[in-house]
Amino acid sequence: MTRTFLAALLIAGVILLPAARAVEIEGVKIDDKIRLSSGGPEVILNGAGVRHKFAFFKIYVGSLYLTQKKNDRDAIFADPGPKRVSMHILANEVTASELITSMNNALAVNLSPHELALIEKRIRDLNNMMSSIKTIGKGSVVLLDYIPGVGTRITVNGVERITIPGEDFFPAMLHIWIGAKPVDGRLRDAMLGHTSGRLF
């Protein structure tokens, strides 16, 4: 834009806002900010990275969204606001059994027996839902949204599959990615904003 054109816009009272930035990781564009539903709360990208298996198999791009950026795990767990974890599948195929096993193992090593007991039935409900899907292919998107007063809504490829009640369920699930013993340490660091990953 020329200076003259910019000046004309200013005189006319027009304000130019930059487009929302997007991070691109492994060919997946991750929005800088999103709304959890039409007219719902807005959350911003806290961090994103790749979930690896056996160090080199790329399973999915995982992203964490919060109302405000936070680098401290305890602060995130204590935050009562809306949140999202998104998984953009990179592997050709991920079975429900693989996801369930990975999830359950991560919860078992991060939560105490008492904490697990409090969410045991809801974990079974989630496992049953995932089993009904059987497999998730490359390019699929799984969203876990925490909506205060509602619970944890899980969407697969744009279809709402289940909403799990309770304020404690989403923080418990977060241990899978940012707990003391996460499924992938590099992904945890990326979600916490400690590493930037591959930015384009």
In terms of topology, how is this protein built?
Blueprint: H1 3-11, E1 22-25, E2 28-31, E3 33-35, E4 42-53, E5 57-66, H2 73-78, E6 83-89, E7 93-95, H3 96-110, H4 113-133, E8 135-137, E9 141-147, E10 151-156, E11 159-164, H5 169-178, H6 185-191
Antiparallel strand pairs: 1-2, 3-4, 4-5, 5-6, 6-9, 7-8, 9-10, 10-11
Helix pairs in contact: 3-4, 3-5
Brief synopsis:
This protein is of the alpha+beta class and 200 residues long. Helix content is 34%, strand content 32%.
Describe the structure.
- The chain is of the alpha+beta class.
- It has a single domain, classed as Chalcone isomerase.
- It is 34% helix and 32% strand.
- It contains six helices and eleven strands.
- The protein has a seven-stranded antiparallel sheet with strand order 3-4-5-6-9-10-11. It has a two-stranded antiparallel sheet with strand order 1-2. A two-stranded antiparallel sheet has the order 7-8.
- Helix 3 (96-110) runs antiparallel to helix 4 (113-133).
- The longest helix has 21 residues, at 113-133.
- It is globular, with a radius of gyration of 19 Å.
CATH domain topology:
Chalcone isomerase
- Shape descriptor reads globular
What is the highest CATH level, the class? Alpha Beta
The secondary-structure class comes to alpha+beta
Overall pLDDT:
87
What helical percentage do the residues reach? 25-40%
